[in-house]
Structures are given as C-alpha cells and as structure tokens.
Write a structure and sequence with these properties.
This protein has 23 helices and 16 strands. It is an alpha+beta fold. The strands form 5 sheets. A 4-stranded antiparallel β-sheet has the order 14-3-16-15, with helices on both faces. Strands 10-5-12-11 form a 4-stranded antiparallel β-sheet, sandwiched between helices. The protein has a 4-stranded antiparallel β-sheet with strand order 7-6-9-8. A hairpin with a 2-residue loop joins strand 15 and strand 16. The longest helix has about 35 residues. The radius of gyration is 32 Å and the shape is globular.
C-alpha cells in the first residue's frame, strides 16, 4: 500500500493535484508551531488547526501525513529510516501540517485577490488528468472512481484539492521561478561531493592476540571476584501478556472483493507498480559484431554449423563479442539488433543483421517467457495492504473494548481475539531473553518490546493487570504469575566460563599492544610500510576509495568518518566492534568529468529549488500574517501523527 501510495501521490498527475504543495517542505512555520495563538477555546477534538474559517480535520491531516511519507520516501530512494526516530516522525507531521496550512493560505490569498476558478475550469482540469483516461485517451469515469475509492477520496475531495491547486499555482508556485544559485556555492558543493579520499586500512580482531601462558587457579578466582556480574543467573519472570497493535487489528479487518479488484486495477495501470509484479520476456544472448556483410555471412554460417563461441572469436579476431543475460528487448542498444534477438528461437543463431554500428550475428542461449501477476496471485498481499492502511484509524476505536475486556479478566484469558488483541506467555529476564539465552519473541517495534519488559519487571507478582497505552496507539496488559530470583553462580560451576573470559581479555590486551606498536610505526612511515613483511600485511586493504557521493556501508561508521575526515598522510587507531582498526589516508581522487558534470547539474537543480522554496516561504509568511493559523490542538496533532506513522512503520517492517 505504501508503494502504491508513493507512486499515486507523487508520480501521478492526480497525486500532484492532491500533493503539489508537499514540494514546499519547510515553509510557513519554520519547523515549529509557536506562532499559533488562541489555545483551543471553542474547538472540539475534531480540529487540528484553523486557517480562516477552515478547520483542518484529523482525516485531512492523516491524508497529508501519508502524502508526506510518500514524498520523503521518494526523496530517500525508497528508504524510510526517518520513521525510526521520534525526531523524524515529528518532522514528518510538522511538514505535512505546514503543507496543509500553505494550501489553505494560498486559497485564502486567491479569494482575497479575486481569483475564483469556475466549475468549467475545474472540470476541464480533472477531465484532462492522464490518470483518469482509458487506453484510447478518453476520460473514463469508472477509472476515476476506482482511484478515488482505493485512496479513500470522494468526488468533493477531488474538486476541493483541484481548486486549491489552481489557487496555489496563481498565488505561490510561480514565485521565484528565475532564481539561480551562486556559482561559488555550487562550486564548493561539487568539490565536496565529487572528491574523495584514498585509504589504506587494516582490521585486526581481538581474537588475533596470542596468549603464551594459561591462567592459574588463583588468577581465575581473582578474575571471577572482579567480574561477578558476568557469572550470575538473572531473575526470570513468567508473565501472561495480551497485546493489541495496528498489525493485530489489521488481521481482523474484512476487505470487500470490490475494493481488492479496484486496488489491483490501480496497480496494473500504474507503470511503476506494474513493473514490480510483471516481467517482459527475457533473453540471454551472445553477439559477434563485424564491419561488413560478407564477414557476417561467413561467421553466421560457421556458427550455425556448430562452431563454438570461443573458436569463432579466435577465427575472427576483429569481431567484437558481447553477452547479455536476462535482457529485455529495450536493453539492447540497437533496435534492429533487439528485434532480431527476440525473433530468433532459443538455441538458434540468427542471420546477419544490419545495425547502426555495422553487422551483427546473434546466438540465443535461453528464453524466459513474460510473466503477468494475476489478481489471484496478488489478492492476499493487496488485502494485507488495505487492512494495514485502515487499521491505524480503528486501533483507537477499539481501545475502550480492550480496556473493558482486561478489566473483566483477572487472568487475561477472557480478552476476545476479534477486537485484534492476542495473548502470549512465557519466562524471560530483564534483557528480554528466554532461559536458553535467545531473545523472547515479543511483538511490535523496539519501543513496544522494551515497554513490555519494563512493565513485567516493575509489576508485582499477582498484581491485577491494567492497560498500558504506548504513544503509537499500541496497548498491552501484563500479569506476572511467577518470579524466579537471580542467583550468583559459584566459581566451581562456571570455572570454564571464567577461563574463557580471562583468555578473551588476555587476547584483546595482546592485540591492543601489537596494534599500538604498528600505529606508532605507521605515524612515521605510513601504514603500508609499517606492515611490510609483517604477519598482518596480508590483511591490509590498499587504495580503498571513500567519498561523500557514495557512502560505504561495509565498514563501521567510526571508520567511515575517519576515512573521510583525516588529512592526507594521517593514520588513526580506532576500536570498532570486536576489532582494532588502523586507517591511513594516502591521497585524494576526483570522480570522472562526466559524473562531475552530472553532479553539478543535479546540485544546481536542488539548490535552485531550495532558493525558490525560501522565496516562497517568505511569501507564505506574508499570507499567514493576513490570516494566521489559530487554535492548534497539539494533543490531536500528536495522536493522529503517531497512529498513522506507526501503521506505516509496521507495514514497512520498521517494527
């Protein structure tokens, strides 16, 4: 659902009508809501904020948050890491609300200045939307209805958003179109991104350290006494738990066949979505290209007669060989070559084909037929997507039923499953581990699991359960029915474990001494010279490239930072994880001129948009002075934002 939402609300024309103002991400309020006066007097729990006479409702705000997530994911290459932190979640909500405010401020400004798009104008804009057209290019009302229903929009929603878009075009979006970024600032950014560092580095695990002597019994006993916490059996508590989350509520939601069919049609009509499920015919081929037709005819005859690929390359050394695995027809660089490759039978060699670069002969190695995802194959995943999308709003509605069920069940065995609550029980320690040492299978994200553990270890044995509600709307109740106190393991019972721990510490210390000696030498002669002839030389990684353009994920963050920030000639000794690292910057490099030019063009476009948005923010601030946002309901804002983002996080596997 999130992928569909992203494409619908960012890539499609209809989505741009509804979400056009999302591209003005940091406008009007500058990241806070401290300018809103008036408190919440006269407002109920159905208004997030008021602009003029318009009240932004929870439903309108919920849709804005969903649009903002779609846009942010598009900007982050499909990633949703910003949902993992409270700050990221708050900024999504703030940006979504700022965008809504700007839409309505633009509409008010348009009205004040006499702008009033008529019904015919709005109808013409809607009828011209490509998303509502059939294959022949004509407006299709059934297609429009399908798209609106799947995205929980009415005809009136579409008309209102189209009117606001037209107001926005007239009052906001044309402002600052001619702005250009300063050349010096652009040069600095290109230089920062387009240049990188060349690094020699070596990773030396703690386990490499050699220990020449075994510990005595006295040494082990002393180590045991100094590290008693390492050799203690933890306290275990047996608890019964009932949990209700957006994910568990989703499993109880029924989706009609009509909604499933409409969602499937929308996926198949969206090119980006359809490409995820459907695959064209794929072919693996070998190609030999020559300069003239006569040579191509000889080569084709020999190949068709059974000559091998390798033998033909020796026989025709001037022929240019190429192979493609699982290629689409559009992957082939020449249309004539593509047509021939996909017209030749599997295992056969084609006749010579004339291309823009000369003559080519194609051998088709294998063919993978085209695939098309049927409704039946996607029905279950579509049902899950739609149920998850609706669960967030239903989670709060079922809160009272959950509380009543818990209040009427002292042992938590009478909580009905049909409200979306599910039970589990077991023993675990304060770290959330089972007696065997593996993590307990607690539900939800890290925050919910930690809240469950804390409740289990703070609640008294046999204390009546009560409902605990988390910020994301998830709820749970706990009953602790057994406590096994922690005990100190006697030395005799853990002697082997004490020895293993002593040896591990000794190996780490030995490794530290060795790495320190190498570090001191590397500061004088460089890392490569310091390791020359040493046993660690085989582990040296030479001439590794690091840049801000493509951050590497195969090294710890601390090592990445050192590789990017150290000066040429500097060596650093660092500890990351279970190893010491030596990092030596040996030089710098510059990306290719073609890539540098592409970087410059992309940065220029981004900076131009940023400056344009700054100018539009100034205009937006002037609109807010004429009609300031009033009566901000912070509690309602947080409630809606948390529920929507928790649902989305669960669907994306963030929990």
């Amino acid at each position: 659902m999130i992928t569909a939402l992203r494409h619908f609300l960012v890539d499609s024309w209809l989505g741009r009508v509804i979400a056009f103002v999302v591209f003005l991400s940091f406008v009007v309020l500058g990241g806070t809501f401290f300018g809103m006066g008036g408190g919440m007097a006269g407002l109920g729990g159905d208004t997030v904020v008021q602009i003029g006479s318009h009240k932004i409702t929870p439903v309108e705000f919920q849709k804005a948050v969903q649009r903002q997530v779609g846009y942010a994911m598009q900007q982050n290459g499909g990633a949703a890491d910003f949902l993992k932190t409270p700050q990221g979640r708050q900024e999504v909500g703030h940006a979504a609300l700022r965008n809504l405010i700007l839409v309505h401020e633009g509409a008010l400004a348009g009205e004040r200045n006499g702008l009033n798009p008529g019904d015919e104008t709005i109808r013409g804009v809607i009828f011209a939307m490509p998303d509502f057209r059939d294959p022949s290019g004509k407006f299709d009302p059934h297609k429009m209805d399908d798209l609106l229903r799947v995205n929980n929009l009415s005809h009136q929603d579409l008309i209102q958003e189209t009117r606001r878009m037209l107001y926005g075009r007239a009052t906001m979006l044309a402002f600052g179109q001619t702005v250009q970024p300063p050349a010096q600032e652009l040069d600095w950014m290109v230089n920062h991104i387009g240049h990188g560092q060349v690094v020699d580095m070596v990773r030396l695990p703690f386990s490499l350290g050699a220990v020449s002597t075994q510990p005595t019994d006295d040494q082990l006993k002393r180590y045991y006494q100094n590290h008693l916490w390492q050799f203690r059996k933890p306290e275990y508590r047996h608890a019964r738990i009932v949990v209700m989350t957006a994910g568990s509520v989703a499993k109880t939601i029924q989706i009609s066949d009509a909604d499933l069919q409409a969602s499937y049609r929308m996926k198949m009509q969206d090119p980006a979505e359809a490409a995820r499920y459907n695959s064209p015919e794929l072919r693996s081929i070998e190609v030999l290209a020559v300069g003239d037709e006569a040579t191509a005819q000889e080569l084709a005859a020999a190949w068709q007669g059974g000559q091998s690929w390798a033998a033909l390359q020796k026989q025709y050394p001037k022929a240019i060989p190429a192979t493609l695995n699982d290629a689409r027809q559009t992957d082939l660089p020449d249309p004539a070559l593509g047509k021939t490759a996909f017209a030749t039978q599997e295992g056969k060699v084609s006749a010579p084909v004339h291309t823009a670069a000369g003559w080519s002969v194609v051998h088709v190695l294998s063919v993978k037929p085209a695939t098309h995802a049927s409704f039946e194959s996607l029905k279950d995943s579509i049902r899950e997507d739609l149920a998850n999308a609706r669960a967030a709003s239903m989670l709060k509605d079922r809160q009272r039923a959950f509380e009543e069920a818990v209040a009427g069940s002292v042992t938590l065995d009478k909580v009905p499953a049909d409200i979306g609550a599910f039970p589990l029980e077991g023993s675990l320690d304060a770290h959330g581990n089972l007696p065997g040492g593996e993590p307990a299978p607690l539900p939800g994200d890290a925050a919910l699991r930690q809240a469950l553990i804390e409740q289990i270890f703070s609640q008294k044995k046999d204390e009546p359960p009560h409902v605990v509600t988390e910020p994301d709307g998830s709820s749970f109740a706990v009953m602790v029915d057994d406590v096994t106190p922690g005990t100190q393991e006697p030395y005799e019972a853990v002697q082997q474990g004490v020895k293993d721990a002593w040896l591990a510490d000794a190996r780490k210390h030995a490794t530290e001494q060795r790495v320190t000696a190498l570090f001191q030498q590397a500061k004088k002669t460089g890392l490569r010279q310091a390791l020359a002839g040493q046993k660690e030389e085989a582990m040296l990684q030479k001439d590794e490239h690091f840049s801000n353009l493509q951050l590497r994920h195969d090294v710890p963050a601390l090592i990445l930072k050192a590789a990017l920030q150290q000066k040429t000639g500097q060596t650093a000794m660092l500890q990351a994880g279970d190893a010491y690292w030596l990092v030596n910057v040996t030089g710098t490099y510059e990306e290719s001129s073609t890539l540098m030019q592409a970087i410059r063009q992309r940065l220029a476009a981004q900076m131009t948009a940023a400056y344009r948005n700054d100018l539009q923010e100034t205009l937006g601030m002037s609109y807010t002075r004429a009609a300031p946002p009033r009566h901000f309901n912070a509690a309602l804002f947080n409630d809606v934002n948390d529920r929507v983002l928790s649902m989305i996080s669960g669907r994306l596997g963030q929990q």
